[in-house]
């Protein structure tokens, strides 16, 4: 899909998410929002300056998210101010403050953790700059952000448990690699998985620790799990693909077969996960879509032009297994 097709898809999806109430204001190929009466007062993509306070580059997912934001801005002619916080909340906050000083039109942010945003979001509000939450939720009152654009992490956790039941036949001693502590995806994937576990008494979590969504930490924590529990472990639930890929290395180094001796379910559905499924080392991956750039900028333009947007624009996502991974791999965009 080129950017215009992605935007048309996003516009249709936005309408669905809004219960069909988006109206006719979808972007045209020229980048001008087409409205029923007169476009003269409306800003175009080329008129707006957008700040994006990225978390960092912890995963394949995050790299794809950054690329999507930058590519969409370049293709649409939006002036983008991009900052990489290197996983630190204080750097994200500093970036937001710098965007406020620079008087950008809109700020996008995937909050690294849920809490601690109230003050800086209030500063943006006071300066008249709307905040769009991209990918992750923040624990702030509704009036401090315009919309949240991203996945249903709770459902991803539930889907991971359903997939785990499928690949283990409902009997498993599971170790869990949790994402960044205090982040919305880690909180919800932890919770959603356990919700579904309640109806699968044969599946039990025997250990759980954070690998911070990072491959090397996933490997490290899996080594510790193996030292502690050895062959008692029959399954691994990783909150993202990167940690699963790291754990696969640790399992092999321990002399066990990932995907066979230890069944593995992870989240993201990035290309690395498809390659691991093709190799028989990963048993399922739950999709989490990072390609949010076109929708983010479409929403940013709408907000600048005073249009209302739904409070949450959820992504549409699937579940993938090894049986058709080879056929699907060429279609994966990240
Ligand atoms: O917030 C989305 C999560 O953050 C992805 O699952 C993970 O890979 C990323 O780092």
Summarize the structure.
By secondary structure, the protein is α/β, with parallel strands linked by helices. The protein contains eleven helices and twelve strands. Helices cover 41% and strands 17% of the residues.
Bound molecules: alpha-L-arabinofuranose
Shape: elongated
Strand content: 15-25%
Major beta-sheet overview = 6 strands, parallel
The percent range for helix content is: 40-55%
The strands making up the biggest β-sheet line up spatially as 2-1-3-4-5-11
Low-confidence runs: 1-36
Question: Over all CA atoms, what is the radius of gyration?
Answer: 21 Å
What structural class do the secondary elements suggest? alpha/beta
Order of helices and strands: HEHEHEHEEHEHEHEHEHEHEEH
Explain how this protein is built:
By secondary structure, the protein is of the alpha/beta class. The chain is 41% helix and 17% strand. The chain has helices at 3-17, 60-76, 89-101, 118-126, 153-168, 184-197, 215-229, 241-254, 271-278, 293-304, 325-328, and strands at 49-54, 79-84, 106-109, 131-134, 147-150, 172-178, 203-210, 235-238, 263-268, 284-287, 312-314, 319-320. A six-stranded parallel beta sheet has the order 2-1-3-4-5-11, sandwiched between helices. α2 packs across α10, α3 runs parallel beside α4 (118-126) and α5 packs across α6 (184-197). The relative contact order is 0.15. Bound molecules: alpha-L-arabinofuranose. Alpha-L-arabinofuranose binds at residues 58-59, 61-62, 135-136, 185, 213, 240, 242, 267-268, 288. Alpha-L-arabinofuranose binds next to α2 and β9.
């Amino acid at each position: 899909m080129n950017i215009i097709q992605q935007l048309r898809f996003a516009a249709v999806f936005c309408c669905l998410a809004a219960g069909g109430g988006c109206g006719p204001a979808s972007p045209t190929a020229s980048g001008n929002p087409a409205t029923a009466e007169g476009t003269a007062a409306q800003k175009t993509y080329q008129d707006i300056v957008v700040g994006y306070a990225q978390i960092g580059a912890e995963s394949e997912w995050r790299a794809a998210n950054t690329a999507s934001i930058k590519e969409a801005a370049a293709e649409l002619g939006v002036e983008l101010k991009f900052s990489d916080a290197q996983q630190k909340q204080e750097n994200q906050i500093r970036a937001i403050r710098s965007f406020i000083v620079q008087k950008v039109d809109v700020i996008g942010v995937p909050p690294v953790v849920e809490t601690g945003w109230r003050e800086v979001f209030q500063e943006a509000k006071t300066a008249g700059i709307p905040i769009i939450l991209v990918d992750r939720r923040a624990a702030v009152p509704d009036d401090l952000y315009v919309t949240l654009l991203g996945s249903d992490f709770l459902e991803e956790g539930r889907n991971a448990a359903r997939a785990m039941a499928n690949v283990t036949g409902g009997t498993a001693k599971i170790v869990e690699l949790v994402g960044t502590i205090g982040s919305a995806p880690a909180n919800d994937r932890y919770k959603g998985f356990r919700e579904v576990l309640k109806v699968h008494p044969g599946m039990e979590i025997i250990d759980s620790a954070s690998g911070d969504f990072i491959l090397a930490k996933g490997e490290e924590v899996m080594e510790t799990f193996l030292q502690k529990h050895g062959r008692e472990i029959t399954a691994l639930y990783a909150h993202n693909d990167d940690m699963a890929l790291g754990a696969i290395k640790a399992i092999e180094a321990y002399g066990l077969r990932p995907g066979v001796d230890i069944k593995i379910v992870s989240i993201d559905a990035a290309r690395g996960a498809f390659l691991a499924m093709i190799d028989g080392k990963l048993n399922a991956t739950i999709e989490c879509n990072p390609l949010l750039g076109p929708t983010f900028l479409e929403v940013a333009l709408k907000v600048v032009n005073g249009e209302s947007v739904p409070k949450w624009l959820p992504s549409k996502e699937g579940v993938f297994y090894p049986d058709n991974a080879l056929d699907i791999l060429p279609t994966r965009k990240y």
